[in-house]
Amino acid sequence: MRRMEPLIRRTLGALLVACSVVAGNLVAEENPRDPYEGFNRSMFAVNEVVDKYAAKPVAQAYDSVAPLPVKAAVGNFFGNTGELWVGVNSALQGKFADAGIDIGRLLINSTIGIFGLFDVASELGLERHDEDFGQTLAVWGVGDGGFVFWPGLGPRTVRDTAGWGVDYAVDPVRFFDPTGVRDGAMIVRFVDIRASLLPSDKVVEEAALDKYAYIRDAYLQRRRNQIYDGRPPRQDDDY
After folding, report:
1. What are the Cα distances from residue 218, in Å, to 24, 138, 147?
2. What is the spatial distance between Cα 200 and Cα 217, in angstroms, rounded to a whole number?
3. What's the CA gap between 19 and 22, in Å, rounded?
4. What own/partner pairs with CB < 8 Å and gap ≥ 24 does 103-110 have?
5. Which of 151, 180, 215, 232 reaches 20 to 30 Å from 52, CA-CA?
6. Nearest CA among 142, 133, 123, 129 for reference residue 229
7. pLDDT in tens, the chain (239 residues)
């Protein structure tokens, strides 16, 4: 029996390797839009650590200390700074009526709404749109290029990563002066966005057996809905 132990160990080892290869192939087949899954899961783990010990505690403190009107004003202000670029992307996608609404929102909220602190335009029936250059590239026919998870930035596709680069380059907050005001504004915006996501944390924790896969699939579905303005075409059953 002892003489058989090396053979048994080698056999079991070979079986484990074979199973891992098969499992890897199955994952690749089941997730055709996640060709970089190994890298993505590593970056996701890094992001989880940073979020747990830095971003989330700060967001929780902000959420508990800041009064609701203050949080609403902060969100409105930063939303207003992006209205012009939203309008440009609406126009680039051929949605000229939406672009007119976006510019109208900018003018109304920047004046009557006191630099965007109050969303007067929504009260007047001008709907806020959510357009970015990644969506514009998709409308122009650029493929998503696969899913990527970046530490700090979070989930993206290759196309949306390129789109984010353009969005960042034209971000009005980047041009705030002096530098201290710009950096402070970027930090406040990040904290405000992270605080807005706190209610979803519990949902993800309770619903997801695989948190990474849950966030990936939710992101891809949300982006698809955004690109098609909530009316995505039916996908093949094999997808």
Report:
1. 22, 18, 12
2. 15
3. 5
4. 105/80, 106/80, 109/76, 109/80, 109/83, 110/80
5. 180
6. 129
7. 444 444 444 443 443 333 343 344 444 446 888 999 999 999 999 999 999 999 999 999 999 999 999 999 999 999 999 999 999 999 999 999 999 999 999 999 999 999 999 999 999 999 999 999 999 999 999 999 999 999 889 999 999 999 999 999 999 999 999 999 999 999 999 999 999 999 999 888 887 789 999 999 999 999 999 999 988 988 764 44
Strand partners, 6: none
Residue 27 token pair: 């994952």
